[in-house]
């Protein structure tokens, strides 16, 4: 069983690499719209963030709500500031950085039922 | 290279002197009440409010409006609308009308925390009573337990939330004493608005610090806790009630 898994993984690896590098051919599955964020680089490496962003956010939220620790390194507001779509200004919606990938992965995203999905400046504009 | 001992001694003494020069017992750190962003809230501090009802004017709604604006509340007055602070008119037997703001009293022994089945309702180290919406299941036990009717339930979906004040349908919420402002060394929005409106009915400060303005005022004037018989040790005190 392990051998089969390894074989599949090694067979799939070149495709995944090619897919990441070149524009994809149209498929039946809507692919996530991953738009590069503003700024030079993310707060952590991209592969690390792909795997662990949920843990960072969960850890940070408890420290902020319970202990009042308001560092910006792993704060959701900080994510939104950089990753809001240049077109819609949001991280949600069909082209949103968060929502599009979550819908592709089939993982429910409920952060933005309470949290602002736009950068601070954009929200201030609405409330003016 | 030889060490200039005279110069080194002078530098050490200057540094020591600078530390005590401001005033005995007062350091710059205390004056700013600053807390580093990576430091947790501490039990050394207990935030409180003093309401001077002689300064609070009937008809003035500045604190309520400021709260709504700061926290992105709709400002509606229906039973199902969130109200974190209300203005209340009290009429005594002789018909004299007094006005006061009523909000979460930030009890030292909060009944809302006692009854919460999930631990969502909690008291922060510095005495601020909050709801952790990540764990709130919206059962509303806390609303029934609160003797001050201070909590609201969000019945409908919310949009355009403030980044500092996330809030949404299905959770209970109440006055946070503007915790997001306090963590950045700012005073609550209602207190700021009251001062801006030319009244000084609200005074915010550290109840644990005997040198703070609020502690000195509490020592000087007679103050009341609402429903003191419940012995909840509220952090909001009223003068002239």
What key attributes describe this structure?
heterodimer; A: about 130 residues; mainly alpha; 5 helices; about 50% helix; disordered N terminus; B: about 240 residues; alpha+beta; Alpha-Beta Plaits; three-stranded mixed β-sheet; two-stranded antiparallel sheet; 8 helices; 9 strands; about 25% helix; about 15% strand; globular
Describe the secondary-structure layout.
The complex is a heterodimer of chains A (128) and B (241).
Chain A: H1 2-21, H2 46-67, H3 76-83, H4 97-105, H5 120-127
Chain B: H1 5-20, H2 28-32, E1 47-52, H3 62-71, E2 85-91, E3 97-103, H4 111-115, E4 121-123, E5 129-131, H5 141-145, E6 152-153, E7 172-173, H6 179-182, H7 189-196, E8 202-206, H8 213-220, E9 236-239
Parallel strand pairs in B: 1-9
Antiparallel strand pairs in B: 1-8, 2-3, 4-5, 6-7
Plain-language structure description:
The complex is a heterodimer of chains A (128) and B (241). Chain A is mainly α and 128 residues long. Chain A has one domain (34-127). Chain A contains five helices and no strands. The N and C termini of chain A lie far apart (60 Å). The model of chain A is unreliable at 1-21 (pLDDT under 50). Chain B has 241 residues and is α+β, with helices and mostly antiparallel strands. Chain B has one domain (47-239): Alpha-Beta Plaits (2-Layer Sandwich), CATH 3.30.70.20. Chain B is 25% helix and 16% strand. Chain B has eight helices and nine strands. In chain B, strands 8-1-9 form a three-stranded mixed β-sheet. A two-stranded antiparallel sheet of chain B has the order 2-3. In chain B, strand 2 (85-91) and strand 3 (97-103) form a beta hairpin. In chain B, helix 3 packs across helix 7 (189-196). The longest helix of chain B is centred in the first third of the chain and has 16 residues, at 5-20. The radius of gyration of chain B is 21 Å and the shape is globular. Mean pLDDT of chain B is 90; it is low at 19-32. The chains are: A mainly alpha (128), B alpha+beta (241). Chain A binds chain B through residues 61-63, 65-72, 77, 80, 113-116, 119-120, 123, 126-127, and chain B through 35, 37-41, 69, 72, 122, 124-126, 130, 132-134, 157-158, 160-164, 166-169, 171, 179-180, 182-184.
